[in-house]
Amino acid sequence: MLEVQQLAVKYQGSCCLDSVSFQVAPGQFVGIMGPNGAGKSTMMKAMLGLVPTVSGRVSFCTCPLCQQLERVAYVPQRSQIDWDFPVTVGSVVMMALTRSLGWFRGPHREAKQRVHAALEQVGLWDWRHRRIGALSGGQQQRVFLARALAQNADIFLFDEPFTGVDQPTEEILLEVFRSLKQQGKILMVSSHDWGKSMSQLDRLMLLNQRLIADGYPDQVMTPENLQKTFVTARGAGSGVPRSAFFC
């Protein structure tokens, strides 16, 4: 069980995340939806100890998650990655195994097999020698999906993976997510707009600095909850996503 208790983050005195608590069981596919600036990325980073928190506890199997990060695969937003870095597709995926291999040891047979299998699963094995910067946005997202798969983690966190990708990549992402769920993995995916893919979720969290609602998507997507999530206190809305029309 992944458990988050009273997680709070402040930046320069302003609240970014306000006392968020939830639990996720193995085999659950959880969607996180909210407008830009709602704290979706901040929450994932805070769970991993990548940003300082003012309060809260995050545990997995009753132990602090920060002490077992090898069990977590985290894929940040594409905008946070340096795509000009001179590295090949295969090397990016192999980096997921650095912790188990050690910095000064070459990849063993099992590691190569895991990289091969992961790239095959996302349809990029034939692109393994290409520079990451030469790929399209959708292909780049698939490379980091393969990197997460090669890690063979227990918890998968994906931050806005559907942003700027093509239809084939979106279908591959959803197929991989279904597979991870069937394997009993914990899967949390953020998006500002889920669309028809919301039907695949076990749970949906609406987040805007605090947790507005958490439950089955058709129960969560109410006009009242959407108003609280996507309309600011001043009354200026960020726009209700088209997902509302598919609930």
Automatic annotation (TrEMBL):
PROSITE patterns associated with the record: ABC_TRANSPORTER_1, ABC_TRANSPORTER_2
Q: Where is the ABC transporter domain?
A: 2-233
Work out whether the entry's keyword set contains Nucleotide-binding: yes
User: A Gene Ontology MF term for this entry?
Assistant: ATP binding
Pfam families reported in the protein's UniProt record:
ABC_tran
| The protein's name in its UniProt record | Metal ABC transporter ATP-binding protein
Q: Which residues form a coiled coil?
A: none
Q: PANTHER family, from UniProt?
A: IRON TRANSPORT SYSTEM ATP-BINDING PROTEIN HI_0361-RELATED, METAL TRANSPORT SYSTEM ATP-BINDING PROTEIN TM_0124-RELATED
Keyword set for this entry? ATP-binding, Nucleotide-binding, Transport
Family in the record: Belongs to the ABC transporter superfamily.
Source domain of life is Bacteria
* Gene3D superfamilies named in the record: P-loop containing nucleotide triphosphate hydrolases
